[in-house]
Design brief:
Elements (H helix, E strand, L loop, with lengths): L1 H21 L2 H18 L4 E9 L7 E8 L5 E4 L5 E2 L5 E6 L4 E5 L4 E5 L4 H9 L1
Antiparallel strand pairs: 1-2, 1-7, 2-3, 3-4, 5-6, 6-7
Amino acid sequence: MGELAGVLIRGIVVLVGNALTVLDLPELFGGRRRRARASALECGSLVEIPCVLRDEELTDGRERRGRLAVGDGPVRWLPLGGEPAVFDPGELTMQAVDRQAVTFHAAGGRTELRLHPDEAPLVLRALAG
């Protein structure tokens, strides 16, 4: 009887493990946050969009995680643990896109911006307007 219980428990553990690998939990919960940011921006609120930026002036040419503050006024770069700065890269050209990120280059490759594809239109509209 103990062997049967052990086999059943192992089977349940394997089944749950396989189910967790199929579910994309970050995407599931992240989608709700992205939709909330988009609706807040439509209402005129200031929204902070997570991204990765590499810029000669703002990040000393290194990739850094941070947020872009979009909404009232110019777009601002908010690095983790750093001072906010105005982000005006000029014309952005899309370089690569997949399910998790879209990458834009500007100023002859001196600036690279990576963010979630769902939030790219929000940032592009803010930079254009």
